[in-house]
Amino acid sequence: MHSEGRSGILSNCNRLFLQNLGGFAYTASLQNSTLLQLMEKLLTNYNKGVRPVKNWTQPTTIYIDFILHAVLEVDGQNQKLRTNIWYQQIWMDEFLKWNPIRFDGINEISLPIESIWIPDVLIQEFIDVGRSPYMPYVYVNSSGHIKNYKPIQVVSACRLEIYAFPFDKQNCTFTFCSWLHTVNDINLKLWRSHEEIENNTSAFVDDGEWELLSVPSKYEMLYNEGREYAQIQFNVIIRRRPLLYVVSLLLPSIFLMLVDVTSYFLPPNSSGRITFKSSILLGYTVFRMNLSDDLPATAMTTPLIGVFFAVCMALLVISLIESILITKLLSMNEEAEPMTAVSKCCVSKLISSNRSTTDSFCTSLKTQEGICDDSASDSDTETPGQHQAKILNQEAQALQIKELPVKEILKEISSIKFYLYQLEDPINPKNDWLAFCYRFDTFLFRVYLVILGVYTVTMSTLWLIWSNP
Predict the structure, then answer these.
(1) Do residues 167 and 245 make contact, with C-beta atoms less than 8 angstroms apart?
(2) Half-sphere exposure of 161 (CA within 13 A, CB side)
(3) What are phi and psi of 159, to 5 degrees?
(4) Tally: H helices and E strands in the chain
(5) For 338-414, where are the E strands, in sequence order?
(6) What is the C-alpha to C-alpha distance for residues 284 and 310, in angstroms, rounded to an integer?
(7) What is the pLDDT of residues 247-279, one digit of tens each?
């Protein structure tokens, strides 16, 4: 009895399940047939080549929404910008309306985009086709409003100002307008308010090189050949993050310049100074060649960082030339040093000869004094003949002393005095050149410090402006 009751209950459950399954299948088929009927009703006798209004004097209003998703590429040389945006169009189609009650409460349906009228709203700055995904459908609700949501990749022309690179800001415009229809046929409006569009940066991919600041927008009327065209312009204001370029470009260049500045503390006549400066110049040239691809190139203006690199290179070259010039002048002075050595040798010899002459003169005088003393002491014991002979000998020695080359000694002393005067003469051309070279070396050192200080202040100011927009 219990087994028969259980089997009956199972059979009833299976029967109910099959009935419910059949009801769901019937309902699904009914819904599919309703969608089919609705689509056939909407697209039957629909002409997509005609603007969807019953009163042709009434313009079709296109509501536009713009959201910047990512900045993919900024090409300063070709003056173009590649971005990914989320673009939305909403308009009213008076021929695509229905009563939801008659179609099982269906309020919205998707239709193929090729089957309905689409406004010819384009971006004026558009210059190239990007890799945008193809969206084949649009949503249509029962009141006739069509929503065309699609992400597009736009390659647009933009006037890029790269003078302050890498502390630059860019303002690129996206102007939406109808290419053919005037404002009497197609009018444009914003789907959201100006403030909401300007401050909405939540959808932007903020982990790249560029930072989105704001997206201001405005509505304008374009007059061309007596006709008025409606257009909406979005200004995308982005700012570059300079930290990568400061670390890879500016800091190595500043460090090389500081090393070159320290070379001025080497002696000017040192041969290692030229070698040191040549190594710095060669290293700076290789550094610039390796990083040439990282700098933006444009034929309109030269970036400030390019001027900085050119000035640094010029200062390194001038510093090397100045060191070579000073070394050459010092070598010319060293060529004159052998003559100076010979003159010093002659002076020492003359001084030694004068000393020997003076010593002989003093010796003779001492001898004469000794003789006089001896004669005075021996005058009592000498005979008159011996005394007369001593007097004649003393007179002969006096005559020899008078015949010493006094004039030649005075002449040599005068030449030595003139030579020493020339060495100490402040208007000596050689001394003037050496003094000029040392002053020029000091002047270049100060110029280095001034230029580096000016560029340091400039970069610090740009950094502060970038940090506080």
Answers:
(1) no
(2) 10
(3) -80, 100
(4) 10, 12
(5) none
(6) 11
(7) 888 888 888 888 888 887 887 767 788 888 899
